[in-house]
Design goal:
alpha+beta; Muramoyl-pentapeptide Carboxypeptidase, domain 2; three-stranded antiparallel beta sheet; 9 helices; 13% strand; disordered N terminus; binds zinc ion
Length: 285
């Protein structure tokens, strides 16, 4: 019986991860990875180290510890494998042991899958590797606990972000990164005014919705994504015969990537107006 609260628990500090109040409703994660809430000591407020004296001194996978730093929760070995214990008490598997196709990975990734496809910043280049979509696999539960599990929760955490004369709403956790991007873009547009039109009729930031053609939440739902002028972007679903193409200039991509935003132009399933704040893809591999 694995019920004794402190038996074989090896909780690693979540390093400043900002835990929300443990009021989020627990729509179950995958059955194999969701169990009863963790003891109050590790589910309330900011998780702190709860190292049982008898716990084996093995470290969590570095990627898991890194995800906990950027999002919420604490790495924990539950006796069967490493999981991320979330503030609500739910647990999600680091490695669920399943071999998945690309489509299955998008539909039901484990945490390891989120980091499995390398994100390559730098000079813009066509994406030629089929299904090379770094960042598109997301454990939605993790985002829900970090940013808000419902539209109401997310909306309560939105703050204004001004860019090139327009005001948008973004999640307060991501605001510092958005502000750094704004500063970089102001400098870039000052040097090269031809960048300016990309920001005149922007697609925007927050929108609580699913990704087109799926039931998965778009990262726009969490206030961590922004679309430039859609008329200057290319989107794989809009093309009769999808073929990567791009007109978004390098200087814009550089400004976002420097602050931990991934660009949809790095995806086989391209969406070149789209940027989203995913610092783990720059930091956790
Ligand atoms: Zn977008």
């Amino acid at each position: 019986m694995r019920g004794a609260p402190d038996l074989a628990m090896l909780a690693i500090a979540a390093l400043g991860a900002c835990a929300r109040e443990p009021t989020a409703t627990s729509a179950a994660a995958r059955p194999s990875t969701s169990i009863a809430p963790a003891p109050a000591s590790s589910s309330d407020a900011a998780p702190s180290a709860v190292a049982a004296p008898q716990a084996t001194a093995t470290d969590p996978p570095p990627g898991l510890a890194c995800l906990a730093r950027h999002y919420v929760g604490a790495p924990l070995h539950d006796g069967e494998g490493w999981v991320l214990a979330l503030p609500s008490g739910a647990r999600v598997a680091w490695d669920d042991g399943r071999k998945k196709t690309a489509a299955e990975t998008l539909d039901g990734p484990d945490l390891e899958d989120m980091l499995a496809t390398p994100y390559r910043a730098g000079p813009i280049a066509p994406v030629t590797q089929v299904d090379h979509d770094p960042g598109r696999a997301r454990v939605e539960r993790l985002f829900g606990e970090a940013y808000g599990a419902t539209e109401k929760e997310v909306r309560a955490a939105l703050v204004p972000w001004k860019l090139r004369g327009h005001t948008f709403l973004v999640h307060r956790r991501a605001l510092p990164a958005f502000e750094e991007v704004r500063a970089r873009l102001d400098v870039a547009v000052g040097k090269d005014p031809s960048l300016s039109p990309f920001f005149e009729h922007m697609g925007g930031t927050f929108a609580y919705r699913a990704i087109a053609g799926t039931t998965r939440k778009s990262t726009h739902s969490f206030g961590i994504a922004v679309d430039l002028d859609p008329s200057r972007g290319h989107y794989w679903r809009s093309d009769a015969k999808p073929q990567w193409k791009n007109v978004v200039p390098q200087a814009i991509v550089d400004a976002f990537e420097a602050e931990g935003f991934v660009w949809g132009g790095r995806w086989w399933h391209y969406d070149t107006m789209h940027f989203e704040w995913r610092p783990e893809l720059f930091d956790c591999r």
